[in-house]
Amino acid sequence: MHGGRTVAAVLLLVAALTGCGAGGRPAPDPPDVVRFASYDFPENQILVEVYAEAARRRGLPVSVQHGIGTREVVSPALQQGVVDVVIDYLGTALAFARPGFPRPPTEPERMHAVLTRTMGGRGVAVLAAAAAEDQNGFAVTREFAEAHGVTRLSELTPLAGELAFGGPPECPDRPFCLLGLEQRYGLRFGAVTSMPSRAATLEALLSGQIQVGMLETTDARLAVAPVVLLADDRGLQPRENVIPMVRAEVLDRWAEPLRSALEDTSARLTTADLVELNRAVELDGRTPAEAARAWWDRQ
């Protein structure tokens, strides 16, 4: 059933990206356009715009499709040639590509090497990683943390049965989200609520609808909202450096201009930059494209 839904989603994505020609048949893709695609959460949309803007500034023709879906949709779309460039996160991308890997490496260089070999066999090139990194974080309100004396995830274990957890719809099945919390920490929450966005997660935390919520560690709202991230004291989260992944055929076609655009972006991008980009969109109201252009103007 899961595989069938993924195939159906990719087919819908093909239709969305190409449109329909005469007789309801898919129209051909625009010639010689590098197609960037993002996942269905704001930070990834920002990152895609940052990397796409680098390609534009080198004179490459670019299209951007936002909010395609989860990794279960976007990764097959990249491998099947429906999209050309995806901006991903090292640890999660490796776990998704090699779910049964017996002893996954923990050092970024080795993680990158394994991911490069794995995706290379699927027609996808993994380019150099950025210093910028974003991991899954798990937040509680400051009031909750003080009342219960918790600063670490392991300290939630005796409380979890009475707590409600909120996170993205895919969280229960993800090894670095709810599934990992259960396996690594023994956290089994009394209720689990699917959240449509990170903003909704924060609102649910502040209103008391949930007591624990998943927010990325680079979420700019963490600096202004009365919430705290709990320490991952048992090391659930892997290294999550930002990485561009490109269809090998497309990289061969555009050669050095595309490679240098993407890798120059990675060489410049820091975690502090990522927080500031998120702030520009989440708090200052800019669009991802506006934030990306402003970031490049400052470089």
From TrEMBL:
User: Domain named ABC-type glycine betaine transport system substrate-binding: which ranges?
Assistant: 34-297
Question: Which SUPFAM superfamilies does the record cross-reference, listed alphabetically?
Answer: Periplasmic binding protein-like II
- Protein origin, superkingdom: Bacteria
Pfam family for this entry, one: OpuAC
Q: Which keywords does this chain's UniProt record carry?
A: Signal
Taken from the UniProt entry, a GO cellular component term is: ATP-binding cassette (ABC) transporter complex
Report the GO molecular function annotations. transmembrane transporter activity
InterPro entries from the entry?
Answer: ABC_Gly_betaine_transp_sub-bd
Which residue positions does the secretion signal occupy? Answer: 1-22
Name of this protein:
Osmoprotectant transport system substrate-binding protein
**What is the protein's species of origin?**
Blastococcus saxobsidens
